[in-house]
Write a structure and sequence with these properties.
Keywords: 4Fe-4S, Iron, Iron-sulfur, Metal-binding, S-adenosyl-L-methionine, Transferase. Its cofactor is [4Fe-4S] cluster. This is tRNA (N(6)-L-threonylcarbamoyladenosine(37)-C(2))-methylthiotransferase MtaB. The protein has 14 helices and 20 strands. With about 450 residues, the chain is α/β, with parallel strands linked by helices. The strands form 5 sheets. The protein has a 6-stranded parallel beta sheet with strand order 2-1-3-4-5-6, with helices on both faces. A 5-stranded mixed beta barrel has the order 16-17-18-20-19. Strands 7-8-11-12 form a 4-stranded mixed beta sheet. β19 (about 435-445) and β20 form a beta hairpin. α9 (about 235-245) runs parallel beside α10 (about 265-270).
Length: about 450
């Protein structure tokens, strides 16, 4: 049984958070990681300390993904694992899965609070409400739903986010939500309408990254190319403003819809010293008929035009493509059409996603269903094609020198870093190179990791 507070709470005592130990768990995209980091910062401001690995925490925050049914399953499994490993903890579940399936999550034993996508900034408040109620003897159960709000509410909320991984890179949230209506996707329901922070606020965030010692920023969002929807600004102007921030060596843009990649944006990145020749573009299918069924806003001709301009302006660019395998309606012939298109496209790597049935999506009305066996076969064929492309890309630069930002993680005597065009290198650990851009010769690919090469530092 679950009940809401029936007695008015006394004034919230945020001091109850001081000294509590919190553990954070994130599933899904880099946008989620940036938001989890912001939640952690909010709690730390009230004295919450980060729990050590393996330590039983007082507070557990789980930021979920819902891009596929498999992501939902991972979320449920993680929640149960966290509850078992942290008996008695306040367990907070947030993110896209929480937005779409709050009641389902509340049914999981041990969950304390569910917070929707647009209300992550309220997590400290809701934890304090629960702790305040317990301190004052108000009879409650450790089940309390926080209303997630609908799409209309989400479109008025932009919560900033910036996270740092264990290296030199920060992920800066510049945009949230999506106005598209792709037939297979639930993200607009989970994230709401497109909205963004102002250029001034993004520049201020980049300056804080500099103060924290960060050297690289990845711009994250749901549909970054739609930047400016709520502020009347443009992505191109954001790029110009960030490019002028002193102290940031590198920027990368995480993902851009092909029809939103303007000639001006390509030219700006090509001419920039700080925006790297690294593109991540969702193609989803190389078949115009499948793109129509998906309700994508472009066709192959436009996609080809954008790729050709990028390659012409930045011939050394790394180009990653998202592709969905086994979409409803993708017959054998349409898949072969897509694979043939990909063979002739100058990409570097494919990010493959198996189509997943999502409740309340229009794709469910498409009659032709691809069997799981065919999905696996098609994924294997495209993975083989991707491996061929990434290997050819790395071999093309073998023996050349490229600038590398070396990261702070040491593993078995080696350090790692990425070239400007996103080739991952390993080299013997050298503390003087950490967080510095030091050029290196690119060696051969490592046999145990096709997406990493040995590097030899070039130092004065």
């Amino acid at each position: 049984m679950r009940q809401q507070y029936e007695t008015a709470l006394p004034p919230l005592n945020y001091g109850l958070l001081k000294g509590k130990r919190a553990a954070y768990y994130t599933l899904g995209c880099k946008l989620n990681f940036s938001e989890t980091s912001t939640v952690g910062g909010d709690l730390e401001a009230y004295g919450v300390e980060r729990a050590e690995e393996g330590e039983c925490a007082d507070i557990c925050v789980i930021n979920t993904c819902s891009v596929t049914s498999q992501a939902d399953k991972k979320g449920r499994n993680l929640i149960r694992q966290v509850v078992r490993a942290n008996p008695g903890a306040v367990v907070v579940v947030t993110g896209c899965y929480a937005q779409l399936a709050a009641q389902e999550i509340l049914a999981i034993e041990g969950v304390s609070i569910v917070v929707g996508s647009g209300r992550k900034g309220e997590i400290a408040q809701h934890i304090t409400e629960l702790l305040t109620a317990e301190q004052n003897g108000i009879e409650i159960y450790r089940k309390k739903e926080i209303f997630t709000g609908g799409e209309q509410e989400l479109q008025h909320r932009f919560e900033e986010g910036c996270s740092r991984d264990d290296r030199t890179r920060h992920f800066l949230k510049v945009q949230d939500g999506c106005n598209y209506a792709c037939s297979y996707c639930t993200i607009p329901k989970a994230r709401g309408r497109s909205r963004n922070g102002s250029i001034a606020s993004m520049v201020a965030a980049a300056e804080r990254v500099v103060e924290a010692g960060g050297r690289e920023i990845v711009l994250t969002g749901v549909n970054i190319g739609d930047y400016g929807r709520t502020t009347g600004e443009r992505l191109e102007d954001l790029v110009k403003a960030l490019d002028a921030v002193e102290g940031i060596e590198r920027y990368r843009i995480s993902s851009l819809e092909p029809e939103l990649i303007s000639d001006e944006l390509i030219d700006l990145v090509a001419a920039s010293k700080h925006f790297m020749p690294h593109w991540h573009i969702p193609l989803q299918s190389g078949s115009d008929e499948v793109l129509r069924l998906m309700r994508r806003r472009y066709r192959r001709a436009l996609f080809t035009d954008r790729i050709e301009r990028i390659v012409r302006m930045m011939p050394d660019a790394f180009i990653g493509l998202d592709v969905i395998v086994g979409m409803r309606g993708e017959t054998d012939d349409l898949f072969e059409e897509s694979r043939s298109f990909l063979r002739d496209t100058p990409f570097t790597r494919l990010h493959l996603f198996t189509y997943s049935e999502r409740k309340d999506t229009d794709a469910l009305s498409i009659p032709h269903i691809v069997t799981p066996a065919k999905k696996r076969m098609r994924s294997n064929l495209l993975q083989e094609l991707s491996s061929q492309h990434i290997s050819a890309f790395y071999q093309r630069f073998c023996g050349q020198s490229r600038p590398v930002l070396w990261e702070s993680t040491e593993h078995e005597g080696y350090m790692h870093g990425f070239t400007d065009n996103y080739i991952k290198l390993a080299a013997p650990f050298d503390p003087t190179a950490i967080a510095q851009v030091v050029p290196a010769y690119i060696g051969t690919q490592l046999p145990h990791n096709e997406e990493q090469c040995m590097g030899t530092l070039l130092k004065d």
